[in-house]
Write a structure and sequence with these properties.
RraA/RraA-like, metal ion binding, 6 helices, Glucose Oxidase, domain 1, seven-stranded mixed sheet, magnesium, 14 strands, RraA/RraA-like_sf, Putative 4-hydroxy-4-methyl-2-oxoglutarate aldolase
């Protein structure tokens, strides 16, 4: 049973954002918040085993994991920590997206935190997917419809465990805090500041209108350099 609090943004805003792929949201961000042109999104490649799934939009649940070293906590304390972690993941603003940093340094991805069990548990807890620089496994048994962006795919979970949760993490170049709004698809992910989220769908439409004359001539059998120049001029005049 999950406890989903009313989010800081109306559900209609999240639904509108979900109609666009992540590159389009990045384009829109360049219009609405040009100062964020070099920050706030993944800059390193991630594996997406389910590229046909639609974009996901949700509030971050942040976790730091490691797998090379065994947890130093006694078994009883480990069990308690696991329950506390699930309580954190399953409560708060929804829908939610797990954002997990593997802190094993040069051995990042050594053991998979994610597989058949965790994907199904997190889906039941109200998460839409996971973004991690760590590894994942059990791809055929993965929870249906649960998106995944991962640093690698591997067979073992080694000594994997959650070291901490609720703090700031950095995954594939993207810095994320708990409850940050995340947009993600097969291309990667981006953090959307709450105060500009509602402006992005309109900006995304503007991006589309500006691209239309260029794409039309590029795809036309009558393409010519002169027609491309004219299309570029028309595109620049669209506001």
């Amino acid at each position: 049973m999950t406890n989903t609090a009313t989010g800081p943004l109306p559900a209609s805003v999240l639904e509108a954002l979900g109609r666009y792929d992540t590159p389009t949201i990045c384009n829109a961000m360049e219009i609405v918040a040009p100062e964020r042109r070099l920050i706030g999104y993944t800059t390193k490649p991630l594996v997406c085993p389910f590229p046909d799934l639609p974009p996901i939009v949700g509030y971050a649940r942040t976790v730091a994991i490691r797998s090379v070293l065994k947890s130093s906590l006694p078994a009883e304390e480990q069990s308690k920590r696991r329950i506390e972690y699930y309580e954190y993941v399953g409560t708060g603003h929804g829908p939610r997206i797990s954002v997990i940093q593997d802190i094993d340094g040069p051995d990042v991805g050594y053991g998979a935190f994610w597989g058949e069990v965790q994907s199904n548990v997190h889906k039941a807890l109200g998460c839409l997917g996971v973004i991690t620089d760590g590894s994942i496994r059990d791809i055929p048994q993965w929870a249906p419809g649960f998106q995944a962006l991962a640093g690698s795919i591997g067979p073992s979970h080694a000594w994997v465990h959650a070291e901490s949760f609720g703090g700031e993490v950095r995954v594939a170049g993207m810095t994320v805090k708990s409850d940050d709004l995340i947009h993600a698809d097969q291309h990667g992910a981006i953090v959307i500041p709450l105060d500009i989220a509602a402006k992005l769908p309109e900006a995304a439409e503007l991006c589309g209108r500006r691209e239309t004359p260029i794409l039309e001539i590029a795809r036309s059998p009558d393409f010519s350099l002169e027609k491309l120049k004219a299309a570029l001029k028309r595109s620049a005049e669209i506001h």
